[in-house]
Write a structure and sequence with these properties.
With about 260 residues, the protein is of the alpha/beta class. About 35% of the residues lie in helices and about 30% in strands. Strands 6-7-8-3-9-10 form a six-stranded mixed beta sheet, sandwiched between helices. A hairpin with a 5-residue loop joins strand 11 and strand 12. Helix 5 crosses helix 6. The protein is globular. The N and C termini lie far apart (about 40 Å).
């Protein structure tokens, strides 16, 4: 099953945010969207989810236009992780994660054994098992973000769309999320995530899409697209990409912001 956009024009009724975007998200791959603040990343994700109607072009799920899918079927196939925000309701973390199972049983259906199993597994994967009964308003912003990710995992949807999933997480939990996404790819899931951290894309992404002012500036294999020239143009300051070697001998590419005025090699 594949999620795709064709010549997509996206935004709001009174404002176009981006246009001319082509994208394909296939099973077993991770695609990363990068861009400065206000570039249209969140609006793009909301359009791919069907929360915003395309202003032009089309979004396809398994070859069929997204709006032709019943909402419940769509929710079972595409999971979403928004940026963490305050909750208006004081559900426990377990109850919040279990909401991810709604597409499988309906809004008013009772939780099944499978629902409870997947909820417990998702909480455990995110290191939240001991906090399962704690109200969501009584955990940190980072723990709230991990809960939203656990909710998406509990859906078992083959597509996972994530809006800056590591934005409010400490360094250790950022690594946890990246490792989890790599495992999902290995299990055949399709992952699309936006980020302000090019290093995250360098570490796990198969492909990268660089968006600036709603336009695709560059797209392709992450190893080729995430280069000093593109990153410097994207963020408006000199950025180099260096290769470092970890203690086990594994080479890894990392981003290095340079002093203003420094020439990128």
């Amino acid at each position: 099953m594949t999620l795709a956009a064709r010549n997509l024009r996206f935004g709001f009724r009174d404002r176009v945010v981006g246009e001319g975007l082509d994208l394909t998200l296939a099973p077993g791959e991770i695609v990363c969207v990068l861009g400065p603040n206000g570039s249209g990343k969140t609006t793009l994700l909301r359009t791919l989810l069907g929360l915003l109607a395309p202003l032009g072009g089309e979004v396809l799920l398994d070859g069929k236009r997204l709006e032709q899918w019943p909402v419940r079927d769509r929710a079972a196939r595409i999971a979403y992780v928004p940026q963490a925000s305050e909750s208006y309701f004081d559900f426990s973390l377990r109850e919040t994660v279990e909401m991810g199972r709604t597409a499988h049983r309906g809004v008013f259906g009772s939780a099944t054994v499978r629902d409870r199993e997947q909820t417990a597994l998702a909480l455990q994967r995110m290191g939240l098992a001991k906090l399962a009964e704690r109200p969501i308003q009584r955990v940190s912003g980072g723990e709230r973000q991990l809960t939203l990710i656990a909710r998406a995992l509990a859906t078992e949807a083959p597509h996972l769309l994530m809006d800056e999933p590591a934005a409010s997480l400490d360094f250790g939990n950022q690594a946890l999320i990246l490792d989890e996404l790599s495992q999902l790819r290995g299990a055949g899931s399709a992952v699309l995530f936006s980020t302000h951290h090019p290093d995250h894309a360098l570490r796990i992404a198969d492909r990268a899409i660089l968006i600036k002012a709603g336009r695709v500036m560059a797209a392709g294999a992450a190893s080729a697209v995430l280069n000093p020239e593109n990153l410097s143009a994207l963020y408006g300051r000199p950025i180099d990409v260096a290769t470092v070697t970890s203690p086990d001998g594994t080479p890894r590419r990392v981003c290095v912001p340079l002093a203003t005025g420094h020439r990128v090699s």
